[in-house]
Every structure is written in C-alpha cells, then in structure tokens.
Amino acid sequence: MSKQLLQKQADTIRFLAADMVQKANSGHPGAPMGMADIATVLSSHLNLNPANEKWLNRDRLVFSGGHATGLIYSLLHLWGYNVSLADMRNFRQFNSKTPGHPEFGHTHGIEITTGPLGQGIANAVGFAMASKYAQNTLGKEVINHNVYCLCGDGDLQEGISYEACATAGHLKLENLVIIYDSNNITIEGDTSIAWSENVKKRFQAIDFEVLEIDGHNFDQIDKAIITGKASNKPTLIIANTAIGKGAATLEGSHHTHGAPLGVDEIKASKIKAGFNPDEDFVVPYDIKGAFDKLMTGVDAEHEWNESLSAEAKAKIEELQNPNFDSIVYPEFEADTSVATRESNHKILNAIAKAIPGFMGGSADLAPSNKTELKGMGDFPNGRNIHFGIKEHAMAAMTNAMNLYGLYRVFSATFFVFSDYLKPSARIAALASIPQHFVWTHDSIGVGEDGPTHQPIEHLSQFRALPNFYTFRPADATENVESWKVALKMQAPTAFVCSRQGLAVLKDKREIGTVANGGYLLKKREDATVTIIASGSEVMLAMQTACNLEKDGIKANIVSVPCFDLLLEQDKEYIDSIIDPTTKVFAVEAARGLEYYRFADVVYGMDTFGASAPASELFKSFGFTIEALTEKIKNDL
C-alpha cells in the first residue's frame, strides 16, 4: 500500500475526529489525531467481520483510552460497522449511538466498556487469558486470533495496568499486543510534572517484549506489529507520537487533549493536508474501500467455519450454550450448621462439574474464600485461576473473560476488599456483564481481624449500584436457590458469604421465593411486627420472634437474600410479605440504611467493628436475642 494512500487514510480519521468534537463542542481531538497513523496501519492487520461482531475467532481491539472515541467511531464507520456519518454528527448527544465513551452493547463493534483509564488494559489481558485457555482446550488451529489494546500515558499511570500486565507477563500471553500512544501529555500538561518512570524497563521487568518506534512512521509501525504478533511473549509497542498530529498550529499542545480545535484551526489543518476546508465528515470513496472489512471479514469467518471439525463445533456449541438446568446441586440437612462460604464451595464445584465453561479464582484467598474447583487443574490449562493479590485487575480481567463468548467466570476476595475492585464492578453493572463476584467474611462476624477487615458500609454500597444484584444468603439452602437465579441473569451478581457457621433453615416459605429477592419465611396470625433481615441475621430474627411471642408480641419474619430483586417487585407482592399494618423492623450487622425503604426502624452498625471473637462482637454491638427483643419492645 502506498505511503500516499496511508497518509490520506490517517488524515481522514484525523478530520472525522476533529469534526465530531467540533460539532458536539465537546470531546478529545488530540489523542485520535495523534494515533491516526497507528490506527491506519493496525487496521490492515485486523481480522474482523462487521457482518457478525460476535465471530469467535475475530481479533479483539480494546481502546483503553475511552476518551479517544473520535478515533473509535471513525474506525467503526470505515470498517463497515453500523455507525453512520449521521451517528458521528450526533456525537455525545442524548440517545445517540456515539456516546462520550464507548459502551458495549450500545454501539455496534465495541468489544467492552472501558470507562476509567487503565480498565481497557486489564480487559485486553482478560481477553488474552480467555483465548489462551481456549487455545489449550480447543486447539490453536481453532483459536488463533490476536488481542490488541491502544492505550496512553494515563492508562499506564493507573495502578490497575501494572496489576494486569504483570499477570500477562507471568502467563506469557503471547497473542497480546499493547500499543502505547506515548505523547507525554495529560490534562494538566506535560507528564513530567507527575511521572518520570522508565516504562520500557518496567515492562521488560515483567517479561514483555518491548519495542519503541516513531508512531508516525508507517514502516516502523507495521514492522513492530508484525514482530509483536510473532513474539512468544506479550508485547508493548511504545509509539512516540505528537498529540493533535496534523493540527495547523496546535500539534503537540495539551490544549488539543480535551477541547475542540476551533473552526479556524480545523480549516487551516485541512488546507495543510490537502483536504477541502469547507467540507466536514468527508470519507473519500477510495478511503472507505481501503478500510472496509465487510467482504474480507465474511470470507475469513466462512473459511474458519469450514476448517472446524465436527468435534470442535460441538465443543464450541456446548460452551456457548451452557445448560444450567443440568446442575446437580448439593443438599443440606435442616438444623445443621454450615458457613455460607462452605456451602458456596460445594455449589461452585457442582456448577463446574456440569458446566465446562465455568471457571474462576480468588485474589490469593482461595483457601479462605473456599473457591477451589476440585480436580479442575490450574489455569491456563485448568479452571482454577490464581489471580494473585490484584483485586482491581482481577475484576476487570474477569469482565472481559465473561464477554469472550465461551465462558462464565467468577472472581473472589474478602468482602471488605471489594473496595479495591469497585470501579470494575461498576463497569460490569453498566455493561450488563454476567460476572459472579464471590465475597466472603461478610460482617463483624470476621472477628479477631478487627475493623480493617470487617465490612460495614459495603452491602449498602453495592445495593445502591444499579443493575447489580447482591445476594446475602441466610443459609446453605438459600445459597443454592440464589445461584439458580444468578446463573440465568444477564447482569453481575455478588455472593456475600459468612465466615461463621449458619443454621440450615427448614425448607418452608410462607410467601415468595429467592427469585423475588425477599420472601415471608414465617407468618404469625395477628402479627403486629415484621422483622426483616438477611444473611446471618435471619436466624437471629427468627429466634427473637419466638422470644417476643412469650410477651404476647407476634412477629412475621422476612428474609431478604437479594435486596436488589426485592426492589423490582410490585407493591402487591411487597405488601403480601411486609404487612403494611405491622410495625417493620430491619436488622443487619452492617450499615443497613437502605432498609428504610421498607422499615420503620433499622438496627444496624453506626460505627466500625472491633477486634475480638465474633460472639463477643455480636453481643457488644447488640446483635443478640435478648438485646434485639428489648429494642423492639422499647420501639413499639
């Protein structure tokens, strides 16, 4: 391909991006203009099929710098995805296909919602992890695509990128190529005001192939990508670029990062490049043809499908369409005592036994989280993933693994450490990614480890997150029923499990099921009180109700394994389990403020916990039969 055509392709991207930002009067033209040369050459290496964005063996391209949407939408349009020039004119407007940052499931061709800087690097590592496992189980003749990630200075400054890339180096994810747009500019100015590390040495230290090039030299870009594809290690290409490349007077300026160039600057830039200054959103015919992926993509997918053996097709079909009804769940005897982390362990193994694409692991806490899949081997040849102590990257990598197209993947840690992965959990909710989060050691019941390890505000935090379903089962049986619901949801779910043993309740529900989020566990005629609880506090509520009855106070008990699902129920159902004629009390060994949605009085935690045996803590903070009985009697 001639240099002249490549230059015209790159300039077309530049001006589409600049026009989008100018039309919206909002956005980031600098990064798209700086990366246009890289994107042009990379495009020639990509195997994509816009006619089927879910083709399994397509290359994955992740834009970690999601603010560079001018580049992303330009490429999607030029490749033949369902992103029109009209959509690009509607950039950053309400209900448009071209929002300010790319959103999976909203815009055709977007592989994953990246959002905050650094997320996309971890997502790319997750895609590479999924493909490595697929290669090892299906064969390299079946899965042989590459994973590319475009990132910038901000992505590499975020800690999540180090966590994820260290994992990539450790696992030798050789089909991962990260292209670093090194323009030394962030919002506040030159990166040197806050950042001075040697990126090349950093990545060499974590066993990456590291190449450094002029990001505007087409030959160097092409050679580096070819080298990265052939490497037996993950590759980082450090591409030295000028932000706002091609801008008439602002090239290299941080002023191009997050603001429109201005009408006069764009016109002068187009004149300099030989484009008509009076036209906008222009794609010359020869340029559309040079980028278009429709014909080549359809042919590539057809050729791949024809190459698959009957056995490979059957395996892929089984992985893509898991039969969750085939799971034989463990059974638990009433009145025995089982920590929900223990029952969860048995449930995870039952799921893995029936579902070949089910896998996951912990942030170095499998013995405590009880997440080992027995006899399933270690990743990347087996299904036990050792993420290391990298909660944030773990969750982001797992988000991508769940979107790869073959697997259902869980991640696990202590509930209090969910703070370290909240941004990734939020992205999972925003993008409806069905990741399962396993969080154990759920309350002050953690005991002697003290307040640093006792989650207080965390349940409230995740219950407040839209499209995120937090299950806190009262016992082993509720845990089973919660998993039955969660596996069929197209949204992230969390299982908040106890360290301490919980009595297995008798399998009787007066009204409703776990699928309703809350149900009437025990109904008493002429009740004047309703007690609502979740997790370990359900048994406490049951025992307190028996104690109140001695004083002539009758109480109904409502178990709320998933507050988020309960909120989705209609008023008729809620009134059927929470009698509006009763006084409603909620009890939770956490903050619990969300229960005021239903309760008149909430007994929760007003402080952090303390270091002591769990039994002493429950007594000290008022979570005993006697204390709760007296509180309710006093508040009636």
Explain this structure.
- The protein has three domains: 3-299, Thiamin diphosphate (ThDP)-binding fold, Pyr/PP domains (Rossmann fold), CATH 3.40.50.970; 324-503, Rossmann fold, CATH 3.40.50.970; 516-635, Rossmann fold (3-Layer(aba) Sandwich), CATH 3.40.50.920.
- The chain has 636 residues and is α/β, with parallel strands linked by helices.
- The model has no long low-confidence stretch (mean pLDDT 97).
- It is elongated.
- A six-stranded parallel sheet has the order 10-9-11-12-14-13, sandwiched between helices. A five-stranded parallel sheet has the order 1-2-3-7-6, with helices on both faces.
- It has 24 helices and 20 strands.
- The longest helix has 22 residues, at 3-24.
- Helix 2 crosses helix 9 and helix 14 crosses helix 19 (476-486).
